[in-house]
Amino acid sequence: MSPTAAAADTTAAEGMVYTRLGQTGLHVSRIILEWDLWVLDADKALPIMKAAWDAGINTFDTADVYSNGESEQILGRFLRKHQIPQSQMIITTKGDFHVAIDDMKMMGLSRKHIFDAVDASLARLGTDYIDLYQIHRWDYNTPIVETMEALHDLVKLGQVCYIGTSSMHAWQFAKAQFIAKQRGWTPFVSMKNLYNAGYREEERDMILLCRDLGVGVITWSPLARSLLTRKTGTVRAKSDMSREFMFGKTNAAECEQTTNDMVVAHVRTIAEKRGVSMARVAIAWLVNRPGVTAPIVGINKPEDIEDMIAALHLQLTADETKEIDDAWAGRVLPEARRRVRVAGRGGLLRQ
């Protein structure tokens, strides 16, 4: 059963829920699927994509840099294999980084690179347009005026329907939106940022700004790279890397003791009492946060899709929500904020 357009925050029984992206008329599924062939090869990705589509997920997120363009190619292959009209699927992709070439000058948010990157993404996807085109990171080497005008022109050319952005400082986002409004150009309609029960720095400024401007918030790493699914006494290299990734080497151990362990423990306790997975509890907490449109989830096997959709219908009690909320230490983490929003081009972050 393919997804269909729906009114804001609508659902069919216990299935997928749809909502508007910010103040646009675009209806997205409240679970967005993302995959990366660095983690999952094409033979495994295609069945997951089909299961997600059949379950009602109508929004698929990728980026030109994911596996040097192969991720976009696989999405295009999926559309053609199952004869899915582009009008029924919402495709979101991103540009900024260099793809499959060594020349580092061929990256960033200059007018030339944006136009070249969109043409290349369209060729890999095999589509006529991109529903939501996002800039992957802020470009300190290109005036934002040049970037915003180029994005506006792409919308007017019909190659892009909406534009969004990802992981930057609130002042940068506000500046870009102000320039667009001042000059009558297309503004950003979405912000893709790092936000989960174990990392809530975005609540200080970015999410408040997005709510005030009516911008949709789509969150990456909703499970903190599996940290929020960690069982008692288990040791996972990926989870340990996630803790350092979000909090930095210098204070990773301290934050683990004061924040992460407490958050994970509460998520685990609630999951055990409810008889559900920790992932379901973490996603349920996230989708009910003010301003959040949808989390972007990476799924490794088709059966995980049902669990993610079920999270949309799991209603945490006020006490359960408070337990998770109170575990957040609310400390200022300048190193983490710098790493998340600025360091992406060095290969540290590619979400």
UniProtKB/TrEMBL annotation:
Gene3D superfamilies: NADP-dependent oxidoreductase domain (3.20.20.100). One of its GO terms (molecular function) is oxidoreductase activity. The keyword Lipoprotein does not apply. It holds the Pfam family Aldo_ket_red. Keywords: Oxidoreductase. SUPFAM superfamilies: NAD(P)-linked oxidoreductase. One of its GO terms (cellular component) is cytosol. Residues 38-328 form the NADP-dependent oxidoreductase domain. PANTHER family: NAD(P)-LINKED OXIDOREDUCTASE SUPERFAMILY PROTEIN, NADH-SPECIFIC METHYLGLYOXAL REDUCTASE-RELATED. This is NADP-dependent oxidoreductase domain-containing protein.
